[in-house]
Automatic annotation (TrEMBL):
CS domain boundaries: 22-115
Sorted UniProt keywords: Cytoplasm
Region (Disordered): 1-24
Keyword Cytoplasm: yes
One Pfam family recorded for the sequence: CS
Protein name: CS domain-containing protein
Domain of life (superkingdom): Eukaryota
Amino acid sequence: MADKEPTAADEAAARAKEKAEQDALPYKWTQTIGDLDVAITVPGNLKARDLVVDIKKTSITAGIKGQEPILKGTFPHPIRTDDSTWTLTTAPDGNKTIEIHLDKVNKMEWWAHVVTDAPKIDVTKIVPETSKLSDLDGETRSMVEKMMYDQRQKEMGLPTSDEQKKMEILKKFQEQHPEMDFSKAKIN
């Protein structure tokens, strides 16, 4: 039963559940492959000194002084604290937003959540903005595309591009040497 392909309805239900879980969080967050941004709406009468924002390599605490933190926990992956920042901005409606920018250490990894105790998103469904992918130089871009392809192949239990190459080389070699017995050959 577990190896059954999810139907479109299953997929839609999973997306809807994920959206509901994410919408219920007291913050909004977005990411690119290299960084992550969190926005926390707070009352418009607050100033930066009324807030607590503590960003460490592997954890974060953010909220209003003297209250339970709005966001607190351990990151799923480390960040670069020197390149991570926060600002307090005022929206046209008078509300204020704590904008937190986190710089990922690993620029090749999607995060399933901001902190490990928050509900996860399905990172396999992330479609990088093509413009972002096209911003990369040719070599990096082809590496990212290959990684994404290999990730999808692995999830489906199919061979990665490297494994496919090895199998093609072996097949060619077998065709050129029909006299050899490859039935006990191991590929590694």
